């Protein structure tokens, strides 16, 4: 892990409250899919965000930051980007990274911008050109919250081993996926959790429920990965 000053090369909106941030690094950085960085606001205030980019990109990193006006934790980072055009970061961090040497099927579960964690892992997995199956369950409140929905549907057509399951709590008439809570969608389809590697990112409460309910359904805890697990 190193501290470095990164230049902001792009700040774009992915949805109403989600920003895509691209940082140019001062030197190449090796990281594993599923790791995160910390934005250093000051030495006593370091804010973690998952790295959304694939590890094949070593000189830039991509972040997906969910920031609403009433959420100063994330919005202050966006304001720092707008005002300064650079961020001091510490990276890479995290132990819940992609296990490429496993032969078990993969289940990726994301709530909201927790998708950025699973997106990095998915890109690395598909780049490996393996036939090991991977299913992504992405949950949001409404269809517009799933900002890469069309891209993921296209990827699922291109890769026979990749299955995409979008889930929303509030659907419209044109919705093409499941309705409800994302972990319920997983349990409705996945009946052999003891033969899977499960990666999860989202709100702590969601991760806690998944840990407890999935373990009760046969998932060994050593096959469940997510940095939030260290805090719940």
TrEMBL record:
<feature type="domain" description="FAD-binding FR-type">
    <location>
        <begin position="1"/>
        <end position="99"/>
    </location>
</feature>
<dbReference type="InterPro" id="IPR001433">
    <property type="entry name" value="OxRdtase_FAD/NAD-bd"/>
</dbReference>
<dbReference type="GO" id="GO:0052875">
    <property type="term" value="F:riboflavin reductase [NAD(P)H] activity"/>
</dbReference>
<dbReference type="InterPro" id="IPR050415">
    <property type="entry name" value="MRET"/>
</dbReference>
<comment type="similarity">
    <text>Belongs to the Fre/LuxG FAD/NAD(P) flavoprotein oxidoreductase family.</text>
</comment>
<keyword id="KW-0455">Luminescence</keyword>
<dbReference type="Pfam" id="PF00970">
    <property type="entry name" value="FAD_binding_6"/>
</dbReference>
<dbReference type="InterPro" id="IPR017927">
    <property type="entry name" value="FAD-bd_FR_type"/>
</dbReference>
<keyword id="KW-0560">Oxidoreductase</keyword>
<dbReference type="Pfam" id="PF00175">
    <property type="entry name" value="NAD_binding_1"/>
</dbReference>
<dbReference type="GO" id="GO:0008218">
    <property type="term" value="P:bioluminescence"/>
</dbReference>
<dbReference type="InterPro" id="IPR008333">
    <property type="entry name" value="Cbr1-like_FAD-bd_dom"/>
</dbReference>
<dbReference type="InterPro" id="IPR017938">
    <property type="entry name" value="Riboflavin_synthase-like_b-brl"/>
</dbReference>
<protein>
    <submittedName>
        <fullName>NAD(P)H-flavin reductase</fullName>
        <ecNumber>1.5.1.41</ecNumber>
    </submittedName>
</protein>
<dbReference type="InterPro" id="IPR039261">
    <property type="entry name" value="FNR_nucleotide-bd"/>
</dbReference>
């Amino acid at each position: 892990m190193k501290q470095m000053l990164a230049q902001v090369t792009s700040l774009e909106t992915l949805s109403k409250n989600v920003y895509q941030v691209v940082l140019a690094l001062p030197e190449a950085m090796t990281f594993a899919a599923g790791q995160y960085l910390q934005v250093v606001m000051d030495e006593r205030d370091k804010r973690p965000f998952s790295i959304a980019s694939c590890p094949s990109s070593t000189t830039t990193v991509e972040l997906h930051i969910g920031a609403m006006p009433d959420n100063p934790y994330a919005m202050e980072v966006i304001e720092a980007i707008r005002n300064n055009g650079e961020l001091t970061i510490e990276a890479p961090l995290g132990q819940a990274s992609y296990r490429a040497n496993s032969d078990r099927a993969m289940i990726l579960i994301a709530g909201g911008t927790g998708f950025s964690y699973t997106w990095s892992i998915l890109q690395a997995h598909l780049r490996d050109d393996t036939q090991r199956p991977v299913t992504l369950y992405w949950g949001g409140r409404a269809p517009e919250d799933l900002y890469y929905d069309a891209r993921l549907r296209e990827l699922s057509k291109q890769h026979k081993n990749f299955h995409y399951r979008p889930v929303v709590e509030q659907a419209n008439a044109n919705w093409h996926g499941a309705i409800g809570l994302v972990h319920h969608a997983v349990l409705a389809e996945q009946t052999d959790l003891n033969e899977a590697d499960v990666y999860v990112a989202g709100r702590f409460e969601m991760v806690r429920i998944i840990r407890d309910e999935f373990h009760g359904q046969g998932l060994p805890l050593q096959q469940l990965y997510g940095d939030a697990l260290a805090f719940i």
